[in-house]
Design brief:
Number of domains: 1
Order of helices and strands: HEEHHH
Distance between the termini: 32 Å
Low-confidence stretches: none
CATH superfamily: Winged helix-like DNA-binding domain superfamily/Winged helix DNA-binding domain
Oligomer: single chain
Largest sheet: 2 strands, antiparallel
Mean pLDDT: 91
Structural class: mainly alpha
Strand order of the largest sheet: 1-2
Strand content: 5-15%
Helix content: 40-55%
């Protein structure tokens, strides 16, 4: 699992420091939005040919880590 998480990087010079996949300017949040919107992994990989299957798994593991918090705060929905 840790090897997959190495694919997620934050660089202040790329996407304003947001976590991205291998520094490719694909923010983690974008991939999560695509998945949440109903796109399949295969559809995402077809549309973004420089991404790899393990990149999508890394995004999901990263999101899983972020969800393991010690306290919950309400968030306004958009």
């Amino acid at each position: 699992m840790k090897d997959l998480l190495k694919r997620i990087v934050s660089d202040p010079d790329i996407c304003h420091g947001k976590p991205t996949i291998r520094g490719l300017r694909y923010p983690v949040e974008t991939i999560l939005e695509l998945l949440g919107g109903g796109m399949s992994v295969e559809e995402i990989l077809k549309d973004y040919e420089d991404l790899e299957h393990d990149d999508i798994l890394a995004v999901l593991q990263y999101a899983s880590k972020l969800s393991k918090v010690k306290s919950i705060h309400t968030v306004d929905t958009v």
